[in-house]
Design a protein that fits this description.
Blueprint lengths: L5 H8 L5 H18 L7 H18 L9 H22 L4 H6 L18 H21 L2 H12 L4 H7 L4 H21 L4 H9 L2
């Protein structure tokens, strides 16, 4: 494989006969991706698919390359980003959003004071009351979609993009849904005399 400058990569890939440059870039991306994903369980076929998708994306975005990084570095980043996105998608593809939310409860965030047998009894009752209050506020203040999104993302750990697709919406709309939900919770908590700082301090105890 011949050494190319950034300008040569761009001109040859964007030219009438890009096959040689594409073949050379494919080899570079394959080697780089094998190293970048060394800690993941991926097959050679996976790597080939990621590289092919990466090449398609690189060719699509070639006009936007501005030379702020070496061309090969930029191309590798594009390819790695595509691979990691696909691996995250695979992780959640067999997980039902309904099952995830149904199996995620407030007990996942139980304060240490409620599990410590040596904890001061005077601290246990307030913690129990606070958990019950938060559960009630969530049930009363949030819409079903807000509860689903918050439980899936904040407690279930599902990526925001994955939740957006499962809920038939987009990232921006989901951001607004979560923001509105947090605002409603905050207003209700303040109304009931429960500040976010008090809640956090309760979970730090023990």
């Amino acid at each position: 494989m011949r050494i190319r400058t950034d300008a040569e990569w761009c001109s040859q890939l964007g030219g009438a006969f890009p096959d040689i440059a594409l073949a050379d870039l494919r080899g570079l991306l394959l080697r780089g991706l094998r190293f970048a994903l060394a800690s993941y369980r991926v097959t050679d076929n996976d790597l080939e698919d990621f590289v092919q998708d990466g090449l398609a994306k690189i060719m699509q975005e070639l006009p936007s390359y501005r030379g702020e990084a070496r061309f090969t570095t930029w191309a590798q980043k594009v390819c790695v980003r595509i691979a990691l996105t696909e691996l995250r998608r695979r992780r959640w593809q067999d997980v039902s959003l309904d099952d995830l939310v149904a199996n995620t409860e407030m007990t996942d965030f139980t304060p240490a004071v409620l599990t410590d047998s040596s904890a001061d009894p005077g601290n246990v009752a307030p913690a129990q009351m606070m958990i019950a209050t938060v559960q009630r506020i969530i049930a009363e203040e949030l819409t079903e979609r807000q509860r689903t999104a918050m439980m899936a993302i904040m407690q279930g750990g599902m990526p925001l993009q994955e939740v957006a697709e499962r809920m038939g919406t987009n990232r921006n709309a989901l951001y607004k849904l979560l923001h509105d939900g947090r605002q409603r919770l905050q207003r209700r908590m303040m109304k009931e005399g429960l500040t976010p700082q008090e809640l956090l301090s309760m979970f730090d105890q023990g």
